[in-house]
Amino acid sequence: MALFCLAALWSFAEATLFFIAPDALLSIIALRSLGKAMIAALLASFAAAFGGLLVWTCAQHFPEETLQVLLLVPGISGPTFEMARQLLQAGLFEGLLGGAFSGIPYKVLSAEAGYASIPAQSLFLVSPVARLPRFVLVALISWSVSRLVGARLSDRRKLALCLAVWPFVYANYFLTAGW
To answer: Which parts of the chain span the membrane according to its record (predicted)?
Structure first.
């Protein structure tokens, strides 16, 4: 139960100001249990919707302040907002899903939805459906790799391997997106 709460809190935090996605935690949960990872992914996707709604509200009521705060978050820059704007032009679901798989932070997409006056209810309803596929994919990859190596690696070594992958992923992301 604590892992589920942590996944939800982490996802809410990442949807607002934190800059590490809950994928890292979901991959760790999936090492042992795909079922638990799927539940955590589902909870994380709903918690992200609440965080997105908060960012949307801030963007609607305090647009300049919201922009300035989000620009302080590592990996977010002016061009990030332009890319989010372009993604959302294809439609809300398409934009959120595209952002989930292209490295555009959900918080930026939520802010852009607020700036574009996309209805809050739409963002809230579409967000979990658009966030879930990436969370599920990360869990499936982690679980599959864990099964692939099987008993050749202990649970402790699988965890160490998983924990070693995420700094590499984020180092690459921040090299590309900027710190």
So the answer is: 39-57, 159-176
